[in-house]
Every structure is written in structure tokens, then in C-alpha cells.
Design brief:
This protein is α/β, with parallel strands linked by helices. It has 15 helices and five strands.
Amino acid sequence: MLSTINRALPDLSRSEKSVAEWVLAHPKEAAGATLAHIAAECGTSEPTVVRFCRHVGLSGFRELGIRLTEALSNPASFVHRDVRPDDSSSDAVLKVMDASIQSLIDMRSLLSTMPIDAAIRTMSRARQIAFAGLGASGHVARDACHKFFRLGIPCSSLNDTPMILQFAAIAEPDDVLVLLSHTGRWVEFAHAARLATTRGATVIAITNPESKLATEASLLFPCQVIEDTSVYTPMSSRLAQLALLDAIHVALALECGETAVDRLRDSKNALSTDFQSIQSAVKP
């Protein structure tokens, strides 16, 4: 419920937004409060509170208390709170940790709606896989490339717009382009997805399901982590992306069977102390 309210914030009127912000800041109080009490605390009218409830998908005010009680009774529920300038160091650390934990819980709750099997089948047959992202998502793309290539599938990471667009423009039907974007707002990403799919490639998007990029992707992994990125670089969304790609990597290794196991073992052994000693001994 709290995540739903957070997501609805940009679409609320000013008076409804004041109700939403108060509920997010005082969820326990709101769960047991009367309609008149919330209206008074927010400096607005009772009909405005009811309109807010309906705009976040509730049948009415009574359901708000029920849904908040359910959310707060869940031991795995963490109230997202932005770090503020007047927070102590310990409070700031706690808030970041809580937000990170919540991002993984939210991601897990969406797994049943994600096209995991289709993505694994496509990746296992791919000629090559390109992971693309900018900024913090670019670091995730590089991490994924570092992991996936050891399965024996040619991989690359694309970390600037020209590279992403050029790859999409020459993609082949057996290629897979994985686009990573927390917001999905980069118009170039949606353009790249369109270019690649036109050429028959598979585009996997890990992004905001309400973005233009999401509509252009062949396979969508919805990732709508709530965090304020106007000051701090994305943190919670990056962790969610990393965890999802780690899980896909393991599932892909299982799909590829013994061949993948052998390649993972060989790539690890290549870095062993014994191997490096042999390598040093044969150097002229």
C-alpha cells in the first residue's frame, strides 16, 4: 500500500498530495485515524481525503485503514523514507539499508509476472548478448557482462548512447539486447529498442513498466523502485537490477547444463594460483 501511494504521488492534485505525504510520514497513525482527523492534519477537506483514496485504487476511506494495517503487520515491510539534511548519520544509514531491503522485497513480489522462462530460452540460443546502461545502470551492465560471458556466450557492455544505438542498428535476429534503465525516460533507449526489434533481435528491458522503453521491449522485467535520484545516485534500483541479473545468470547456467558448468569451472581455474605458477614458469 505504501509503495502504491508513493507511485501515485506525481499524478495527484496538490491537496491530494498533501494527504499522501502525511499518510506516508505517519502510516501507523493513519491506519487507525478517522476521516476527520486525517483531513484536519492535512489541512484539507474530507472529500479530498476520499478522492485521494480512490486515486490510489481503494474503494473508499475505510479500505485505506485496512490496507495500511496489512502493510504494517508484514514483518518484511519497510516504510520508505528519504534521507534528509537534518538526519543523523545513524538514521541516514538505517534509511538507506531499509530502502535497499525493500527494493529486493518489491522485486521478489513481481517475479511471478516476469517473463523469466522466455528470457532464459532466448539467451541460451543467443549469438551474442549486449547489456546496455548509462550511469549507475552502466555499472550493472558491466557487472552482468563480466558474469554472463563465462557461460560461453559472447557478451558485451554498452555504456554510452552512440554505442547502444549503433549496436541496435546492426543487430541480428539471434542477438539479445538487455536495456537497463531505472526510469526508462531516455528517449534514445526506446529508439534503440525499436531499431533492434525491427531487425529481429530480442530486446529485454529492466525498467519502469510505465515508460516508453517498456512498450518497445520484446520482454519486460518491471523494476519500479521508489527512490529520490534528484540528489543521490540511484542505489536501491541498482541493487534490484544486480539481484535480478544474478538470478537470471544462475537460471541460464542451469538451462545450458553441463557445458555451462564446465565453462564456469574452467574460467575459475584459469585464475587459480597453480595455473598462474605454471604460466610464469613457461614465460621466456
